[in-house]
Amino acid sequence: MQTTSDEVLISRIAGGDRLAMQVLYARHHVRVYRFVLRLVRNEATAEDLISEVFLDIWRQAGKFEGRSAASTWMLSIARFKALSELRRRPEEELDEETAEQIEDHADDPETALAKKDKGLALRQCLAKLSADHREIIDLVYYHEKSVEEVAEIVGIPEATVKTRMFYARKKLSELLKEQGIDRGWP
Amino acid sequence: MNAMKQEAPERQEIEELLPWHAAGTLSRRDAQRVEEALARDPELARRYALVRDELGETIHLNETLGAPSARAMEKLFAQIDAEPTRRQASLNLGSRISEFFASLTPRTLALASGAAVLAILVQAGFIAGVMMNETKTGGYQTASAPTTAPDAGTFALIRFAPQASADDITRFLESNKLSIASGPTAGGLYKVRVAVTGIPKAELARIVKKLQEDKAVGFIATTD
After folding, report:
1. Tens of pLDDT along B90-124?
2. Which residue from A91, B132, B164, B217 has the fewest beta carbons nearer than 10 Å?
3. The domain B154-223: what is its CATH number?
4. CATH 3.30.70.260 occupies which residues in chain B?
5. What is the ipTM of this complex?
6. Rounded to a whole number, what is the distance in angstroms from the first to the last CA of chain B?
7. Smallest Cβ distance to A126: which of B25, B58, B86?
8. Are B20 and A29 within 8 A, CB to CB?
9. pTM score, two decimals?
């Protein structure tokens, strides 16, 4: 079975096709939501932003030129919305709350009892990273974006993408070390 | 910068690519360079294992974030309905597609075609392999015949390595007595049944670690 490509859907959306918009939304809203949620760290805010992101996609579909993947274009819009929202807040307020939520979502009691659960510790440290570092790690590992695509989404040179990823990973190691887990790197 | 400058430039350059190699988003050429470096540099291979841990846990973390409620979609489409109506006639889809293909260079087109053919062949082979596996245990069954309940057993999440062929995947599934329970998800992940019954976490972790060493595996993690 062949599915309609995102690019074709966007060209239909540019022509006012509401159904194409529904298909595109169904296809991407969860990933875009998670990307935004990891940046703004508030579910209600992320949900509001999702509506705004896809409304922008609806309005700007005619400007999409297909030079990059549709998901890259959508994540760029989502990032802009999330950062605009963050600028309205004086500082990030929900770090500890988010870390607790992750702990709540964690494995079963048996594993939670095993204090040496490295996976859980890694997830907690991932949640503690700065917005810049969370963003790049998510784009590379979860959203499967190439160096070029990350550069396009974040608006930085490709060389900077690589070094920022390196330092995000380094910071992750430092946070793990604070929890008593020495990875022997860097 | 010190941590980076202390390393030999070549290893540093390769090391920077490891996250993308683990995610399967490197070009074939770069992937080959990384593979060769990993084969000859045990320390780099050890660091690559750390990257794979990070990849697995980042996916795990994101997958626990849930999804927006229906309210978000309702709000969106209410806003869209309130927008001024667009003229559909102004869009010529055919010309847009032609324009898109015209913008590609012959080399890009040739590469894209080659990649598409390869992807189709791998996928076809893989599906055939999976179906043959099912046929072996399948055939005619009465409605009351005992079957494995879809949710029964112990599972793992897996993404096959981009360079894995259909034969690699089939061999991997057969030799490890794995069956695909669902997938792929949008991220190319498959849920595979590792055992038909529940097994202790430690045992599952041991199995997953062993499976991770197979070259057909790009990423693997335990799941509930």
Report:
1. 444 554 554 455 456 556 666 666 676 676 777 76
2. A91
3. 3.30.70.260
4. 154-223
5. 0.87
6. 40
7. B58
8. no
9. 0.64
